[in-house]
Amino acid sequence: xxxxxxxxxxxxxxxxxxxxxxxxxxxxxxxxxxxxxxxxxxxxxxxxxxxxxxxxxxxxxxxxxxxxxxxxxxxxxxxxxxxxxxxxxxxxxxxxxxxxxxxxx
Amino acid sequence: xxxxxxxxxxxxxxxxxxxxxxxxxxxxxxxxxxxxxxxxxxxxxxxxxxxxxxxxxxxxxxxxxxxxxxxxxxxxxxxxxxxxxxxxxxxxxxxxxxxxxxxxxxxxxxxxxxxxxxxxxxxxxxxxxxxxxxxxxxxxxxxxxxxxxxxxxxxxxxxxxxxxxxxxxxxxxxxxxxxxxxxxxxxxxxxxxxxxxxxxxxxxxxxxxxxxxxxxxxxxxxxxxxxxxxxxxxxxxxxxxxxxxxxxxxxxxxxxxxxxxxxxxxxxxxxxxxxxxxxxxxxxxxxxxxxxxxxxxxxxxxxxxxxxxxxxxxxxxxxxxxxxxxxxxxxxxxxxxxxxxxxxxxxxxxxxxxxxxxxxxxxxxxxxxxxxxxxxxxxxxxxxxxxxxxxxxxxxxxxxxxxxxxxxxxxxxxxxxxxxxxxxxxxxxxxxxxxxxxxxxxxxxxxxxxxxxxxxxxxxxxxxxxxxxxxxxxxxxxxxxxxxxxxxxxxxxxxxxxxxxxxxxxxxxxxxxxxxxxxxxxxxxxxxxxxxxxxxxxxxxxxxxxxxxxxxxxxxxxxxxxxxxxxxxxxxxxxxxxxxxxxxxxxxxxxxxxxxxxxxxxxxxxxxxxxxxxxxxxxxxxxxxxxxxxxxxxxxxxxxxxxxxxxxxxxxxxxxxxxxxxxxxxxxxxxxxxxxxxxxxxxxxxxxxxxxxxxxxxxxxxxxxxxxxxxxxxxxxxxxxxxxxxxxxxxxxxxxxxxxxxxxxxxxxxxxxxxxxxxxxxxxxxxxxxxxxxxxxxxxxxxxxxxxxxxxxxxxxxxxxxxxxxxxxxxxxxxxxxxxxxxxxxxxxxxxxxxxxxxxxxxxxxxxxxxxxxxxxxxxxxxxxxxxxxxxxxxxxxxxxxxxxxxxxx
Lengths: 105, 890
What we know:
The complex is a heterodimer. Chain A is α/β, with parallel strands linked by helices. Chain A is built from three helices and five strands. In chain B, helix 15 packs parallel to helix 16.
């Protein structure tokens, strides 16, 4: 997972699929990183990956809730149609903003 | 029906469903009567019942049943949530829905063919009448997954649902926990979704994220994912295909309307499982929540079990056979038992245990009559609404028990009688007001035990039956000649209403009036071994009394013999047994019209020889030779009415005993009751009363109305069971002739007694202050004083209201050439004679005295006038009140 900062935005870019195998490690990473976030928005960029399992989904929701608690806007950028399908089917777009990343981006 | 559901499961479902439906109706009526103040437990009870039906219907694949119960459930949910009030219109819809559900249960395999669109549309209209913009063709529908501790609402378009159903799909809710059900089984959400989409369509889903507060604990709990899913698979298969537990898959409760509070519901708290045990615990908690207070749970304290009726019937039959075997054993060992040590005790014990076992098994078939009465409130409600009447219902004795088979057969006759009360009996509110009655009519339904029978009494305070109109209708329809009609007693006139096709209703209503029914009512009741009696007073109301035996299976009966044949006479029909000594026959038996009658305690009782009715050769026992000979006498009376033989005749006969006076030829008369009438049957011999097991008649003998069944006697022989009504009909007994003769003789006796100067007690009273009347004290029930301002005129008749009872008034001047009652007199008396409904108006009570005055016939003559005599120096007119009143009635 990589952290990038733009003006007022912290972007976490996933470098590998989020699954049970790395979810604990990512949880610790996000907890630490979120302590230092002062920006107004956090973006979790899943556009490089094409798979998120149940644990990954839970972690994403956990991150969004933490942002919400801190008063920080949370957005999820997704390129994979499968991940999008799961997120939308679960109605998670009602919980946070999901941006579909197009192939030409 | 589902291929995985077997027939026995289906039967359980039908039995439970019917139970639910029978309990729903009174609750719906209760909801209606309480309006918005309805008890929430009542609504919940109905909701649960419909919900159970819906769930099971979905399981078995009865789509029509499921769809209808579903929309009904949605309406009930609105009421439960306080969004709608249980108005009469809504209750109409729900009650109509219950009727349809009942019809579907009655023919479950054809239930999908029963038209239910209108009922579903009516429920839909109630749901959409709240201004749901989403109820349009493509609008949203809301589905509730009520399996979780907090319901979850989905939103899907109505088109989606309709399309799914059109394609034979069932819409389910699936409850999936991400870790336990997906990750734990090595499946990702995407794979699960793909699996679902390979078998159906995910219409919507909700993820309950409320258990996650943030990053810190997000991996500790589990997330509930609830999906709205349409598939052609049945629940069992779906559960297996998804590798899920049964309780995770439910047929969705869908109703049209806007998605309300969806956002809150998405985040509604749901239980988080730590293991499958937790899920079960949560389900149990849910059951507890749904269970009404005070109802024991199934596992713990339930004291009843469900037993199939055919098993009960089988046990009942076997108990019957046991009773027969016991009877046979006791009979065959009757003479030898004392010779075997200990046998009498064993036999007594066997006798007691058998009786006790049989009584216990009988008890299992007994059900409260309230089960049948429960239909009546709905019937009254619907009928009164249709007819624009106000009718109040009172019920009592609902816990009186009857055999299940009797209850089932009682339902239709009872419905018919109550419907008649509402339609023909109770007047419109305006008409009642004009007659001085309360606007709201009353129907009283009561059940009570009397003389080992169950009586069901249906009363109304309506307009009563006009017996004269019944007679006119019967004559007009050709069922009765004018001549025969005139010979009928008032009771028989009223009973003409039981003739097939007779109705006094001027117009045929939706409810009744086609004249099809009362004959069927009587036939059905008589088939049950019971009878119907009617009592009606014009302007006051009608009482219908149904008498029923407790059970039809085993009945105590008197065994009688004719020639070599034995017959069983059910004890409930027997009034008394009379032995007429052979020597007294000529004095006690005579002919009235075409019938033999027995003089019994001063009254005449029609009698028939059972052998003649059944076409059996009569026999007698010759006292000299002890041989049994055929009896060829035509009539009982012809031979017995001969005068005593003169001396020469006695000499000619010598010392030979007259067989007609031998004790062997005493007449045994069994007096039977048929409705309000009684008659006697002459039999050769009377035996014991036995508990007999009723066996139905074969098709060959069913047409013979003299028998209601057959039984096997203790000695193994078959005995036919006599049907009192059938015998009376077969013998063509006319009770009117005997009644008229009884009345005539009574009057004659009174006249003779009066003119012979017999000492008697009389009451002296005045109508006009200058005229004195005498009336036998023994013929008076009571005296009432009242204020003449209480006299009310209804039509051309006068009534006095005495403690709520409207008593018709009889003015002497209206029936006899006497002077009128003083117009300005306030304090007056009513003399109420026995066995009549009416009171003689008196201005003063003069005296009560004993007199032996001889009556003279000259002077005033008229109905009920016995004659006149001088009493206390005043000319006094002696009256016979029953004759007076009967003439007035005619």
